Amino acid sequence: MASVIVASLKNLLARLPQPRYRRRHDTPALWGMAHYSASTPAKPPSFSDTLALPRTSFPLRRDPKDIDEDYQKLSCDELYKWQWKNAEGPLFVFHDGPPYANGDLHMGTQAQFMEIFDSKPLIFSSYVPGWDCHGLPIENKAMKDLDMDPLKTSPLVIREAARKTALREIDSQKAQFRTMGIMADWDSAEDTYRTLDKHYTIRQLRIFQKMVEKGLIYRQHRPVYYSPSSRSALAEAELEYVDNHNSDSVYVQFTLPLEQLKHKNPLFRNELEGVSTASLLVWTTTPWTLTANMGIAVHRDLEYEIVKATDQALEHAGQLFVIATERREALQNILGSIETICSFTGSDLVGCTYQPIFSSSALGQSLPIIHASHVTSQSGTGLVHCAPAHGAEDYLAFRSNGLLAGTGTGGMVCHVNMEGQFSSEVSEVVGSDAAEQIVGKDILGKGNKAMIALLQQNGKVIKVQRIQHRYPYDWKTKKPVVVIATSQWFADLEKIKSKALTALEDVHFFPEHSRNRLESFIQSRSEWCISRQRVWGVPIPALYHIQSNKVVLDGPTLGHIISVMESKGVTWWDGAIEDFVPPWLMTEEYIPAGSTKPMSEIWMKGQDTMDVWFDSGTSWSMLAEMGVGRGQDPVAPRKHDADMCLEGSDQHRGWFQSQLLTAIGSKDEKEGPVSPYAGLITHGMVLDEKGKKMSKSLGNIISPMSIITGTPTNKKDAAYGINVLRMWAASVDYWKDMSIGPTVISQAVESLRKLRNSARFCLGNMGDAETMKNMERVPKSKMGLAERYMMNELYTLEQTALEGYRTYDFPKVMNALNNFTNITLSSLYFDITKDCLYANSLSSIERRAVVTVLEKVLETLTRVMAPVLPYLAEEIHATWKKDGKSVFMTPWTPLGEEWKDAQAAEDMSSLLALRGDVLVLLEKARAAKQIKSALEAEVDIIIPDSLVDNKFVELLRQEENFLKTLFIVSDALILDEGSLGTSSPAWVHSHTVDIRGTDESIAVRVRPATLHKCPRCWTYTRPENDHLCGRCSDVIVEQKAQMD
């Protein structure tokens, strides 16, 4: 409960002068008090000059911009360089996923950055910032800036524009990172990296060369995810799945001649007598792939049946359909009422043939029915349309059945071009007249609808259904992708994924359950499509022999090409083909004797670029070059290149994987599998305050810079500074999806305010450096219960923080810190010690004990908050120490175990429970307008005569003098039942408190104070005929003696 004096003093804090005490000639009130008597004039003297009111230059509030400007350089750039020269602890290498250099930083980036400091000794920390610089988004941004069409712009112009765009965005992001308080050597070219740098590209190609030499890289024509909006193949890691994608699905029929079925099983002859055909009923969500149909898959173990449609109201009444038996009930919504003609297993269908859906098909007069393990009766009809060019499962099923050729396109049919439109080759299947309706139309838009219309014209559609389902989208363009067969480069993961999983066994995961996610992604992959059809990227330097279509990509040729790039300073894109073709490819096998053709007409450079995940995935390899990688620390040999990597949960199928796979794939076979990182920290996605994903269309994107510096165009967006944003980032459960918005930011602001006020209280009451230098600290043996309890709680806080930082559980640290400052400090210790701090003699042991505790509290609080709130910690340190050094330049020395005091915690817990009962009674008196301040009251604790040898009663008697301080009343007495007397107070509020472990209880009563208000300290402890209470009189005399 806050008293009147507390409320008044809070109002005075901002107005107090800087000196702690005024000198003698400035303090006439002291002389007046020393001789105060009945003859003193009526106007009471001022006692404020005699009180040790808090004084500090540490302001209640500061402009966040000023704070950031004052401490950014000290706590970031200079500190990073200093620790490289001075830190003596073990090397700690932090490696984070490089941000994409194509715009301002987003909230997810902020969630990734939190400096990690260990306890003693000071660790030797390495953090090398880098940027991912290649790929479509940068290419698109460059073309947008130039207002040019990339399809009509030369690759040379695109690459130069993209390079300039990336470098410009890097400079912008670098400034933003500095504003965020990220500690690094930002100005150093050696201690930062860009994936576009020549030496980075060369190192990446060397890793690629090793994987080629190990037989891990191959080229194949097969179905892959393809993004028409990006005009490039994509890997699984580059997909986002949208749950509410809409598609037009169709139920279509293929004609099955029944004679072959009758031949397989003579029993069907009677049941199907007089019937020559039936329709294979197929459901597909991609009608545009039906021109590429090469077969229909069934499951040999499923039961199928031929049913007859009997609903005369429907066009297909009387037709026979083949469906899976388990789908009969569901399909009556499509076919209407039906009756079963005969049943059989899928094995009876396997090997039969059916007629193509288009009569003009160049595929022939019949197509096969095959077995495929992926066919189920869970949805559709139990029969699956197979287009190997447009589905991985179809492709694998056809390949396992030996239905695809081993070279070239494999005989796969694909009528989709690189723009995602029907190509002219579709006329070979649908006929030239029908082709006019669909050629050049987008297969995901008008082309798909035109295909359905064409099928309807041919009488092949039973029903069209609009469905909503989960569908893959391009993670960069946010547009749907398709699956088409193209010739791409792949990394064979089957050969290395078991080693990759073994390497993960000694990797630490934070949180631990994220291990399962990464392992499952790796386990499920068999290959990695690493080629992209982009202009801006690291090349896959393959040589194509024009006449024979032979592709050369082997270790020696790659070695020659990379050496040329290094020695001549050229890139794959601008170097001449003559430079890159090695001597062994200039033999008569490739160049006929006497040929005068230029090399450019014999060999051609490949135009594919590498997946950007391969770019960033090889970043681990630069750490060794920088002297901080695997095996680099002479003090403690390092097993891994990085101690810790940090990224979002989506990177379990991205950067976390690509690092591991390139490291394992390029290592010597003799080496055991070792991960490039020792630990992984995974954070969730940042959502808006309503839990929705941030997007431009929803208008709910929150920029980290708008929180830090405000928005110039919107005065409502206040500038909160970096401390608030970092407070939020460290307070949320970052391993889950986290929300941010005005309410959450306000909570962070309030938490920061309370931390700042706690530091200000300590600084204001400790005094200046000279005062603290001359003050004799109080040892634990002479401290009261409150001080011993506070030190135990401080020790617990620090141990919790150290454990939290060790396990990267930042919310654990911040929750403990906030609870300590808000509850233990502000609501308890600060409240109960103000009277002692302000009114006691500076030399009293009670006050020195409190200041001793405040000094340790400030030291520990500063250390605990520093990794999360470096600027606030620096400001506190600068105000307190005034040494011009960073707070991080002194090792964190934790409190010793001697401050751990379980008994003090137990005793204080018991008294705090009693305090709760007292505060309730005081509130009743206040509500009844019997008191305004708790200091107007006294507390009696009445012990029954029958309660003897009780631990709690012994504690009460032992701490009787402390109780008035704990309750913030003028006095508290321990009374026996016989000591109550017969006098009746003007008012009284009482309550009984049960004694734990006994059947007894004690009585607690609150009544008016018996003495009078002291005009100096405001406690009701002054005898009627005295001018001050005894304590204040002694202090005044002591102060006068010091001045004399």
From TrEMBL:
EC supergroup of this enzyme: ligase
InterPro entries according to UniProt: aa-tRNA-synth_Ia, Anticodon_Ile_BEm, Ile-tRNA-ligase, Ile-tRNA_ligase, M/V/L/I-tRNA-synth_anticd-bd, Rossmann-like_a/b/a_fold, tRNAsynth_Ia_anticodon-bd, Val/Leu/Ile-tRNA-synth_edit
Lineage, highest ranks first: Eukaryota, Fungi, Dikarya, Basidiomycota, Agaricomycotina
EC numbers on record: 6.1.1.5
Location of the Methionyl/Valyl/Leucyl/Isoleucyl-tRNA synthetase anticodon-binding domain: 787-940
Gene Ontology terms, MF aspect: aminoacyl-tRNA deacylase activity; ATP binding; isoleucine-tRNA ligase activity; tRNA binding
Protein name as catalogued: isoleucine--tRNA ligase
Residue ranges constituting the Aminoacyl-tRNA synthetase class Ia domain according to the UniProt record: 78-740
Keywords of this entry: Aminoacyl-tRNA synthetase, ATP-binding, Ligase, Nucleotide-binding, Protein biosynthesis
GO BP terms in the entry: isoleucyl-tRNA aminoacylation; mitochondrial translation
Recorded GO CC terms: mitochondrion
Coiled-coil annotated spans: none
CDD domains per record: Anticodon_Ia_Ile_BEm
